[in-house]
Amino acid sequence: MESVGALDFEEIRKRIRMCDYLSVAQIYLKDNFLLTRPLDFSDIKPRLLGHWGTCHGINVAYANLKYFFRDNPNFLFVLGPGHGFPALQANLFVDGELEKIDPRAKVDAEGIAYICKNFSWPDGFPSHASPFTPGIITEGGELGYALANAYGMTLGHPEKTIAVLIGDGELETATAIDSLNLHNLLDGDKNGKILPILHLNGYKISAPSIYARKSERELNEMVRGFGMTPIWIEGDDPEVFQKALNSDTESPFYILKTEKGETGPNRHHEAHQVPLKNPASDGGELRALEEWLKSYGEVVNV
Questions:
Q1: All domains of the chain, ordered by start, with CATH?
Q2: Whole-structure pTM over 0.90, yes or no?
Q3: In this predicted model, what pLDDT tens digit does every residue of 214-248 receive, in sequence order?
Q4: Residue 184 and residue 20: Cα distance in Å, rounded?
Q5: How far apart are the first and last CA of the chain?
Q6: Which of 52, 108, 142, 186 is deepest in the core (most CB within 10 A)?
């Protein structure tokens, strides 16, 4: 069992805010990455690519898991919604993992400029997770395989603990939903432990997700039917998340419920991809983007 103090909760919150900021900056900015002056039209990328909607949830899960399992060298994180790559890259950057394969991604102001400008940029980083990224084995747009891959990674490795973040739209794929049956086949002392986390944020790319429209009771019964115990994590409060991870529940199945695009601009709260589409030409959107970035506070200290 872990013990997490109030100061540690604030450290987790700060990391989430930092990675949210870096996620937004990667999608939008080609200059002025630390807002050392007011944003200008020339600071905005000419073509905006990326999936903001899932990023905050990814950052919440990653920060909390990274903290909870900080002393476990056999812990791994598997990301299902790899289209939320700005969030994954932000976390890998903050941890210094990117720098290990690319010295230009050093954790300083120049490194921030490097990862932000080169996200979805010619000869730069792709908009989705890809094998170029340390620890990635598949292209991040192909949803559904994360849980099956994670179970495969635990075969014959009882020392491993693998948390798998699954999008609620992703769980509608045949591969993902059928992979839940692997719990009954591979649970045992000879294999590692899987911690599935369903990110219930309400929407997939073009419509509400099926699982977000099910009642809590329906979801609980479905999870129990696969032999696991549902544990709900409502919102992005680290204290709630850490309490859930601390529970002694056998075969847990976590359900992280946040809103699509949470912490984004209010009038585009449920955006799947880019909430503000024209900040390079629309003054109102440019100011909204600046306020959005500033809403995370003084989180980037380099």
A1: 6-294 (3.40.50.970)
A2: yes
A3: 999 999 999 999 999 999 999 999 999 999 999 98
A4: 36
A5: 34
A6: 52
